[in-house]
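Margin note from the TA: students keep mixing up input and output lines. Inputs are the sequences; the output is the structure of the whole complex. Example:
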Amino acid sequence: MESIKLGLLGLGVVGGGTWNVLQRNAEEISRRAGRQLEVVQIAVRDLAKARARVGHDVVITDDAFAVVNNPEIDIVVELIGGVTLARQLVLQAIDQGKHVVTANKALLAQHGTEIFEAASAKGVMVAFEAAVGGGIPIIKAIREGLTANRIEWLAGIINGTTNYILSEMRSRGLTFDQALAQAQQLGYAEADPAADVLGHDAAQKLTLLASMAFGIPVQYSRAYIEGITDVQDQDIQIAERLGFRLKLLGITRRRADGIELRVHPTLIPSQSLLANVEDAMNAVLVNGDAVGQTLYYGKGAGEEPTASAVVADLVDVTRLHTADPGHRVPHLAFQPHSMADIPVLAIEQVRCGYYLRMTVSDQSGVLAQIAGELAKFDISIGSMIQEPADQGTATLIFLTHVAMERDINEAIGAIETMAIMRSKVTRLRVETF
Amino acid sequence: MESIKLGLLGLGVVGGGTWNVLQRNAEEISRRAGRQLEVVQIAVRDLAKARARVGHDVVITDDAFAVVNNPEIDIVVELIGGVTLARQLVLQAIDQGKHVVTANKALLAQHGTEIFEAASAKGVMVAFEAAVGGGIPIIKAIREGLTANRIEWLAGIINGTTNYILSEMRSRGLTFDQALAQAQQLGYAEADPAADVLGHDAAQKLTLLASMAFGIPVQYSRAYIEGITDVQDQDIQIAERLGFRLKLLGITRRRADGIELRVHPTLIPSQSLLANVEDAMNAVLVNGDAVGQTLYYGKGAGEEPTASAVVADLVDVTRLHTADPGHRVPHLAFQPHSMADIPVLAIEQVRCGYYLRMTVSDQSGVLAQIAGELAKFDISIGSMIQEPADQGTATLIFLTHVAMERDINEAIGAIETMAIMRSKVTRLRVETF
């Protein structure tokens, strides 16, 4: 059978990895796909550098639009990242009747609705396994492997940089700044780490997973996003003594009144599988009503792990390339006319457990006053520890049962006005996955 | 679009679960599949019992061949288990041009080649996600999610009964017989536990995974199979002190000279993810050259977890039901004409680490004699502990570096003839996954 013709946009980390894997495993891949996957054109900024890497059998251009408009090309592989230009290129490729494979979570989280609609109208596929969880086939698991289930919730460690930083803070007692500097030295964090440490990258991925889990539109702007820049090492150490470990989790859950969609540092039991996903590894735990909990674990970033997902998409698209669109898996798991209009809940409506740490004046009756304030807001205390602090003060740590975020906010507001307080209240959310 | 018509063979644990899930999640499933999945006929042994369960809208019969020959039916769901009758029914369904979904690992491990050839000749699909790892979409991950990779090895806990027994032996100090009796009381083990505890069930599953990982024919008869019936609780406790945990693993690995295909009790580091898969849970760790290690975890058995995989297959088959066969994923991941003729290695050719425990006469020079015997066979010792035993004897435990099984066998044979020996040598294989 004739080879399928690929056009690559970008030959950076993921583009270079994709090129490597397609060359090295060409035989293994075509034994599976039933035909050759052939890169016929690559768009890059540095022509000489690209030429040195890929040799002379491939057309190289610095005009990305030349690739998306090339009539010979069947599938455009968008690996340049960014949003504005990537959006134009992807839409133009679709308009030219080409299938698209992309690793671009920022693009799809913000413009997924537009892009998927354009693709459906044109009868082409946009595949994006590499956009979430790197080489872990988590999108395939949710879109295809769990179709029997009403998915109840999922929770994932879907940003390797922050998981590495939190792992180092815990195991080596580093501060956030120290761990970040180390991550940057080792190449786990970029020079500008904002997208990772502020939680935006994780929220983009979570938004896509939530859409496929529940059959709701992509709603990145509705996600609650809290990164790890304010995490204090002392809370990691205290939590460890209490049997909990701190992870930056993306959590989405179906509730009677809407969908929770939130990224924030989360305490989970130390012996749980997710708590033991360390270093830069990723994992997603999914709860379906029939299957119960399943977990998917692997490398969430890096040249070849991400390329593994890109190439898996290429094989899938190659298989269904000439098939009637009705035979294909819907972009967001559910048929486009069957998407549900369930609201995304504001963070104030979320329910979980809470860890509250505060420094108070060390005098009698303090504990009763604070417990009384929590009780006013119907917040029930699961456990409490009191530790001596400096100069006539004490540190109190409360672990609450499940409560609503709005009530916790109000209780914290009330507590912080009390005369006995010697600090603000530090709050972390707690889950029992 | 018209509904897809299903015929169920069997309404036992998995059949009943499949019926439940199809009813309860009918809306969620058709929102994904784009059409209704409708059970139109069920074959069972006990008509009255089935009637009470499914009501009056479904035709019930005690003649399974009436279902496979029913011209109205698109997909036959084989959930009766066993081999002889199941084989006849599946082949007859294929001959009638029907697609087949089955959970029957014994059938496919023994007759997979014949069944997949018949299906390819007829242009129909045989889907079997439920045959391995219950609700974990592990077959989809290997067949589709990891197509970019040259898979190097995989290792899995793919029998929940034995994992439960080993977990209880370790955590509660039970003997094998005690843990088995408890597993039977709780319904985790059958009255006749042979297929589970002797390793046959795991070997059937492993054989299918190996075929899809490496593109080799299904070769159940070549698998090395060793169950857990001879596992002694003292070895579990000793291994724990050494930082290892005992699991019944299915392991298949590509070597220069062939494929390892083996099921046996295996010591793995206690802190590894696989070691922490406890109770009746399953997990499979796959190593691909591009993606590195990925892990898939979930419930490996049970009514609805297994039904989750059956229904996922039903949705997949429904999507591709009328598509040209060229658009479908090959049954064993690789195109039928691209299967490789790589030999399966005999157990004597396998390489791994070894744990050797023996009781010897407590006299000077004993350790040197045994170490000398191991050295003769080029077996290098990683660590050793000596413990006092009864009445002038000592227990020696050696952990070797990677060695070839043939050499270990010969060394053990030589050691057991030594005059200082007061016991046979207990041998466990060690891996570092």
